[in-house]
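Each record in this resource describes a single protein on a pair of labelled lines. The shape at a given residue is found from the number at the same position. The record below illustrates this layout:

***
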Amino acid sequence: MGRDVVVTGLGLVTALGETVEATWQGLRDGTSGAGPITRFDPEAAGIRSNVACEVPVDPATVPPDDRVDDRVMGRYAQFAVAAAAEAVADAGYDPADPDWTPERVGTSIGSGLAGLAEIESAAGERPSPSFLVSALTNLAAGHVSMCVDARGPNRAPGTACSAGTHAIAAAVEDVRHGRADVVVAGGTDAAISPLGVGSFDSMRALSGRDGDPAAASRPFDADRDGLVLGEGSGVVVLEARDHARERDATPYAAVTGVGRTGDAHHVTRPAEDGTGLRRCIERTLSDAGRDPASVDHVNAHATSTPVGDAREAAALRSVFDDPPPVTSVKGHLGHALGAAGAIEAAVVARSVAEGTIPPTLNYETRDPECALPVVTDPRETVTDVAVSTSAGFGGTNGALVFERV
């Protein structure tokens, strides 16, 4: 299988704050990042929903230097650079140090809608010279690579809401097979704009709980009525275990399994009974050399949509005879699209390292279609093996296995 891969650094920009610590504390405390949309006027745009999980800070204020440049970076890329700066520093690296080997460092940053807001803003006008570089999907990975001086493999999956998970899966394979010693990997999205929110609103995919934003996203709950759009970025530093050991780094967790499948079923709806996601989880566990009974925790994709959550629950019940504790953090953070899987990967790595499973916010009424052991309060427990799942439009699935080190 190649070299063992560990997580040595974490970076997050979410609706709960601009750091891993702020996000983690908000998850533990049961804080919601949802509120009325402030980035534009939904009513003026003809949009019914007025709820989103917006990042509460200006990305240009996040990193400890001037690496975020909003003159050439779209908001989605700014988030990625900020999260990457935290992750690289958390891993104990300084790209200016002589022991940083740029040719052996890769970049893998996925995005679902990337520069949609920038494209929307430029519509009908003569594009500025910086328009293309502010909107292209691969520019988050490109800017991250330039900011941290990473000259190894560079990619940018655009696989909808599985993009962040797919970016990490591909990065794991880079390290396993010796294409890189270190990869800065994750996902980013910033689609809270009239076109972004309006598109989901037109599909009737959004929650209608405008009067109570904090209660709008309800993963697996019987009263869920749609997702809440989020934004942000999650980045992890992946490293060969022997490489980390040589520099006395302390990993958060090991990534031992990766998997990807397609439903070949429907452009938006998951396959009946979640069969595509089931196969993905099974492949991921096989890749890790683990059987379902060994799994202690599942971080579910669960977006708070009636059909999506029910079909994911069916997939989990078909994989696990006795499902382990299940959490979805989208009750706190909303659905950050291509960033979601990467944000959740960072959360799972922290969860495994700390021995705490974060709760699922707003899970109050059991739904027989989602009969799972959903965690509703922070749970202090040793997690040896955890699975994180993702799914996206077009029937694209991804999963990762994390293990305690």
Q: What stands out?
A: DSSP finds twelve helices and 15 strands in the chain. The mean pLDDT is 96. The first strand starts at residue 5 and ends at 13. The longest helix spans residues 75-90.
